[in-house]
Write a structure and sequence with these properties.
alpha+beta; 2 domains; 3 helices
């Protein structure tokens, strides 16, 4: 008994590779209404692409989302530390000005 490779799986892999390499955009709108009065509109936008392709077109939101990236959590913590430092320095400066005016 010999094993024959499936042509369909190769075709699916080829199609998937092309989709991830080039990217695909699927867009659609769903509108719910009664008696010609629009009550709700849902806009659906889906982009299917590889991570490299997404970064190439400027989509990297997952890198700054603290729920998805530990780098984002560290970045957010560092940003807060910097902001606290600047506020502390500003407060000290204002306190010194108040003391000198007294």
């Amino acid at each position: 008994m010999t094993v024959q490779p499936s042509m369909q799986s190769n075709t699916i892999v080829d199609v998937l590779e092309k989709i991830l390499d080039k990217g695909v955009v699927i867009a659609g709108d769903i509108t719910v209404g009664i008696a010609d009065i629009e009550l709700l509109t849902i806009k659906i936008r889906l982009i299917v692409a590889s991570v490299d392709k997404a970064k190439e077109i400027g989509m990297d939101w997952w890198e700054t989302d603290p729920y998805l990236s530990s780098k984002a959590v560290n970045h957010q913590a560092n940003a807060l530390k910097e902001e606290n430092k600047r506020l502390y320095e500003r407060l000290e400066s204002l306190e010194k000005k108040l003391e000198s005016n007294s």
